[in-house]
Structures are given as C-alpha cells and as structure tokens.
Amino acid sequence: MGILQKSTRTKTRRRLRDLDQISEDLRSPKHLEQHKSTKAAEDLPGLGQFYCVECAKWFESEHSLVTHRKGSTHKRRVKALKDEPYTQKEAEAAVGLRTDNGPRQAAKENTKDVEVDMENSGLMEEVAT
C-alpha cells in the first residue's frame, strides 16, 4: 500500500473536542460523565484522575494539571468558552438559509409582473444592421 504520512496520523490523534461539546460538558455533568466513560481508565494518562474540563485534556499528574491551568493555552480556551456557542439557526442564517421566506416570495412575484418588449426596443435595430 504505501507509507502513511506522519502529518495525517498526528492530526487525527490530537483531535480535541469542539467548543460546543465542551460548553455542553460544563452545563451538564451527565454529558461530561458520558464522555469520560467512553475511555478506559487504564489507557488514559494518570489513570484518568487529572482532567481539564475546559480543554478536554487528560494529564499525568496534579502538578502538570496545575501548570497547564496557569498557561496561556488554557486561558485562551476559557476566554473562548465565555462566548455562547453558535446555534444551528445562526449557522443557517450566516449561510443565507432562512426559516422565514416571506420577503423572498414577494420579491419573486414582483419580477413576474414586469414584461420587457424586445420588439420595440432599440436593441433589435442595432442587431439587424
């Protein structure tokens, strides 16, 4: 088959949870426990004892967790989590999809009423000559 590229392996291995998933973890402890139960404690660093909820990362020791919380990456993530995550409705509005198609229907009806008389326009005379 071929040699796998290292960059593709590391991208999938270091995949973190999205901000909307983490904000759901912060709101609902049940959601957080569901995520934690999917991983076996033996496979996790520090046997799954030291977990940063805001960054969704496991750590080897309490010292490394405390050092992480003082760092800029953790502070950046906490700042990003203060904003409310986008809803599906906001995402569709950004793309241009609307739930209320009233004004668009009215605009389409107005364009049907306009007729252009091509025979009497000056364009036909220019093409003929």
Say how many strands there are.
Answer: 2
Which strands sit side by side, in order, in the main sheet? 1-2
Number of helices: 8
Termini separation = 67 Å
SSE run = HHHEEHHHHH
Average pLDDT rating: 75
The percent of residues in helical segments reads 55-70%
Beta fraction = under 5%
- Quickly give the structural class: mainly alpha
Return Rg in Å. 28 Å
Low-pLDDT residue intervals, each spanning 5 or more residues: none
Tell me, briefly, the overall form: globular
What profile does the largest beta sheet have?
Answer: 2 strands, antiparallel
Outline the secondary-structure elements.
Blueprint: H1 6-13, H2 19-27, H3 29-37, E1 50-52, E2 57-59, H4 62-70, H5 72-82, H6 88-95, H7 102-113, H8 122-128
Antiparallel strand pairs: 1-2
Task: Give a quick summary of the entry.
The chain has 129 residues and is mainly alpha-helical.
Describe this structure in words.
With 129 residues, the protein is mostly helical. It contains eight helices and two strands; from the N terminus they run αααββααααα. It has helices at 6-13, 19-27, 29-37, 62-70, 72-82, 88-95, 102-113, 122-128; strands at 50-52, 57-59. A two-stranded antiparallel ribbon has the order 1-2. The longest helix is centred in the C-terminal third of the chain and has 12 residues, at 102-113. The chain starts with 5 loop residues before the first helix and ends with a helix.
